[in-house]
Amino acid sequence: MEIASIGQALPRYLIQAEHERPETMRDLATLLYQISLASKAIARELGRAALTGTLGMTGEVNVQGELVKKLDVLANEIIVEALEDSGLVSTIVSEELDEPLYLEKAGERAKYVVCLDPVDGSSNIDVNGIVGTFFSIRDRKGQGPDQLAADVLQPGTAQVAAGYVMYGPSTVFVYTARDGLHAFTLDPTLGEFLLSQEGIRIPARGKTYSVNEGNFHRWHPYTRRLVEHLRTIDKATDRPYSLRYTGSMVADLHRTLLEGGLFLYPADVDDPKKPTGKLRLLYEAAPAALVVEQAGGRASTGTEQILEIQPTSPHQRVPLIIGSPEDVALAEDFYQERR
Ligand code: AHM
Ligand code: MG
Prior knowledge:
Elements (H helix, E strand, L loop, with lengths): L9 H11 L1 H31 L4 E5 L5 E3 H17 L2 E6 L6 E2 L9 E9 L10 E9 L8 H5 L6 E9 L3 E6 L5 E6 L4 E7 L9 E3 L10 H10 L11 E2 L5 H11 L2 E4 L15 H14 L3 E3 L19 E4 L1 H11 L4
Helix pairs in contact: 1-2, 2-3, 5-8
The structure holds 2,5-anhydro-1,6-di-O-phosphono-D-mannitol (AHM) and magnesium ion.
The site of magnesium ion has 4 residues, from strand 5.
């Protein structure tokens, strides 16, 4: 968008976007607004969780074998309700729902499928660390519950919009509708997201890498050699890189977008539970990939482009290497045995 000025409120910005691209944005603007509204409610719950008894576990284990936190459930309820209310969504895939949720009552207007992770980085919840929400929006393909596979199992290239919300010192809503990358910061005194960065571009190369290095000895030798390369001293190529890792992909992704560098969650070849890493294709890797590519970055498994992977199941995991274009290309050199 050309005329948006810093400080413009998200609803006004979305109206303008709809005016400029009515075909694409007519309902998408409403849907993005609903997601932003849910994220304000989630930010409110996160902010007072220690006081309202909503920290800690529910005692349940999800379909992926992970312990479920109370805030995972609460955030999921908030965002599912907001999506249902929009009347624009036929199907929801959520990290917190074992199966895709087909909204029976959704009518003709329900032309979108939304995949999401309501609280990403859940391990940070109980220590007042940064967490996030990922969302990924695709057009509905089929009609009815028997068409779920056609709706749900669409590659990242089919995303019409994607983004994340970062609940940090400030709450930041970042989205793309394939028109560049826009960031809005929540002004808590107004209760409104205001435009804070427009047309974000990732640096061509960064100086940090971000990975859970505790898994070093369970990685494939390609990953180990890449990380050893990044931490080797070499003045000519400005190494070593610094290590930054929060345990919240949204926070690590946000820093990588703004300052450049690499974020990785590689395959754990020695961990039978994580042969393809930890992150989920539909609602973590794919939205992150669209966001980063819209900023001029790249997202890869090392050998395949994340956006081009054809999903085979809703909670499928995928190795992820994402960030500055030159840094991702360097990583691919290791995975494709050019180094
Ligand atoms: P989650 O959705 O269950 O929170 O898992 C995803 C998170 C990412 O935000 C983060 O990058 C990663 O898991 C951290 O995992 P680990 O503790 O294995 O490093
Ligand atoms: Mg997650």
